[in-house]
Amino acid sequence: MPSHTAKIPLKNTYGKATELTAKWVVFASVLLPASLPGTEAAHQLVVCVRNKCTPEEALNVLRELPNPLREGDAASTHASQYNPLKIDVFVQTLLNLGSKSISHSFAAISKFHYVFKILAESEEAQICVLRNVWELWQKHPQMVCVLVDKMLKTQIVECSAVATWLFSKEMAPHFIHSCLWEILHLTIDKMNKHVSKLSKELQEAREALARADSSSSDSEDESGSKKKKDQDKPTEEAVERMEERLEMGHTDQKRLFLIVFQRFIMILSEHLVRADTDARDPLTHWYTSTVGRLTQVFLLHHEQVQKYSSTLETLLFTQDLDPHILDVFHQFLALTA
């Protein structure tokens, strides 16, 4: 897909000059060649958003954009139906328009939340959204953290999509940037808090159900008081639904940790193999830093990781793994024994 980037100076939320990298700079009265896919739609979208359009009207502007994944060889290798050109145009144009401040960006995301959800249904599409956020704001990485956090909270992107994006090849040059690790930990924290909330709600519902059953069997209350207690009492079906949600939460949490640790193992193993092939010392600054980050994930989230330690040992941290990497896992097990 043809691309064009331009550097746009602006004031960030801290009042310091920074640069925004954008593909479509139509909002700044700099129109790109009409032959560039997405240019005309981006221009129309700018006008539409500035005229306070509805999310449905914004989607209508994007409707006719071709899908690069359905052209030529790409059509046979991509089963997903998402359209990366639509996502590119929408995300970069909208966040450009909201780049004046964090509150402007949040307002834009909130107003057009429906469009994000329509365009980014699959994990691949969500990763495409994250790529565009990074491409736009990489000169101001703290803004990336803020926007990713917002998108997680509003469920525009899932935790697994964020983790997969962080460890993707296009992010490799920025891998040891502190901003990415901040995003990784806030993503894991988001998942942990979600599971903790579901667990607490289920426990409270079970306790309320037990109290109600005990009260009804021990004494005959007045009819009014008994009716109120029956209304407050959670049903068996409601408790079962909570149990199902918690089970799903645990499944998502385990999958997130599997993604994170698998990607760590992959990049560290590739580094060690390259070092061995080239007869170089593997203990580089990058390697030391990455092992340190892996250790940090274990320590900061030890309560949650410990629940899945047997799964991790069976699927990922197997005996055929390089001892340098395996030692990190064994040290964690020793600390939590």
From TrEMBL:
Basic and acidic residues composition-biased segments: 223-241
GO BP of this protein: mRNA export from nucleus; nuclear-transcribed mRNA catabolic process, nonsense-mediated decay
Region Disordered: start-end pairs: 209-241
MIF4G-like type domain: residues covered: 35-307
Signal peptide, first to last residue: none
GO cellular component, one term: nuclear cap binding complex
InterPro entries: ARM-type_fold, CBP80, MIF4G-like_typ-2
MF-aspect GO terms: mRNA binding; RNA cap binding
Protein origin, superkingdom: Eukaryota
This protein's name: MIF4G-like type 2 domain-containing protein
Origin organism lineage: Eukaryota, Metazoa, Ecdysozoa, Arthropoda, Hexapoda
